[in-house]
Amino acid sequence: MMEQSVTYANLDNTIELKRKKKKKKSLRRECLLPLSPLILSLLPLQTLNKPWYRHLANEFARTFGSPFHRIQSSMILKFILGLFWYLLHIVVSLVHIWSYVIQQLRCYIISSGLFAKYRNFSLSRLRYLAVVVDSQEAKHTAKIKQLLSWLSAIGVKHVALYDAEGVLKKSIDFGQTRLRDRSAGTCLDGDVNCVTSRNYEEMSIELLSFTDGKEGIAKAASFLCSDHLKNDSDGCGRTETLFTEANMTKALKAVGYYGPEPDLLLVYGLARCHLGFPPWRLRYTEIMHMGPLKSMKYSAIVKALYDFSKKYQNYGS
Prior knowledge:
317 residues, alpha/beta, Undecaprenyl pyrophosphate synthetase, seven-stranded mixed β-sheet, 10 helices, 52% helix, disordered N terminus, EC 2.5.1.87, Nus1/NgBR, ditrans,polycis-polyprenyl diphosphate synthase [(2E,6E)-farnesyl diphosphate specific] activity, transferase
């Protein structure tokens, strides 16, 4: 009788143990259900033909291959991806808001003059400043004149204004007087496009457009060609033609389109490029993008000039 009771007890324990194992297996399947497509997708392609991979794929297909399981796992995966995208969007928005607040606070501090370093800094390295404006924004002449007023107040002496379509040349009237005499000394290198203004007596202003660069290159090439033909009149074109940078510089100076090289170029507009500014004048120029002209700020100009005054430029050996 005792032996029979022990046998029944062992049988009950065995049944209970099997029930627990079955329950644990079902729980494991439920946990793996949402992740099964992801696990299979992460396996390397080199294992496609291996027996253990086929066995694993068959097991997953048998266990999780019903339509209900596939729909449930797809919904969970979409929910996780959507939640991740939403959180990422929130983080990026917070970073942009924080950056905007810091920028506005910096602009206020610079404009109020709380930092002495932004009030007193040297412009000795800034002999010539170029400002590139998008042609659509160049039509706002009030903004352009405000910009020149600020630059004059900061202490900038020589400015080149550029827009590709020549809007500034047509729309801005300073009571300009064109200077073609190098002995006048008002403009660096006596460029023919340099103008002075009654409103900005201590500042020389040069107006440029895309045609100045195109026309300058054409005239320089014509000068080089005629000079070469004149020097090679006896050689019947047998000598090899070789033009160097020095020859091009000489030709540009001869036709009056060389001009000074700006130390700093400020770009106003959506494009982060010089928009066709004469490239031979940008060999060592520092370029800064200032954003749209309509959002122009005095503090941003001061900060740009201050940052330039502290930069180290290595021109090579």
